[in-house]
């Protein structure tokens, strides 16, 4: 796939450079520079990440939005959109982040939920927080099911395939809360539930030698020539380079 092919596909899918950066896991500046008129064709690793992002977007658009039984999470399963509430005013938190062609489907689904809620006399409940940005760069992934587990644990539902074979899509696993740890600092090789970039993700923490480009780009995020990363166990998914403050919530004991 050439630079021109990428630009054509971006136009077809309605991707901006910012959207592609988020979906592929690369920094916006890197994507911008790779797609300038004078830039040479991008490297294979970048092209592979872009192709995965495009394929994932195409797969999402195949979701049948006409069925009221469709999961609300399917309807907002990208762009980091986060449904915080659906009330009688039919307002969804993060609504402005969701592409317009999904709006009617979300409203219809919300109406169906509210109708069932009224009939059952119950309150519709959603997870405390879920990061639904499941593009190739951060196929994320953690939906918090229960904060009230025994022995200071939290039950976490895994969404996606980034942590296969250890954690599969749909697995519900207990994770130890940070307050029970002897040391508040993250340790290499351990798997953490992390609050990152506006949502939760489950990834393995590690460090590696920074590339020359990363040394120039990341600056203060480089320590002793190394970058901190959140790794997927599935080699088909790229790592997330940490370049903003993160807070870990729990770890897999």
Automatic annotation (TrEMBL):
Pfam families tied to this protein: Peptidase_S24
Official protein name in the record: S24 family peptidase
InterPro entries in alphabetical order: LexA-like, LexA/Signal_pep-like_sf, Peptidase_S24_S26A/B/C
Domain Peptidase S24/S26A/S26B/S26C: 140-208
Range of residues in the leader sequence: none
Transmembrane segments: none
Segments forming a coiled coil: none
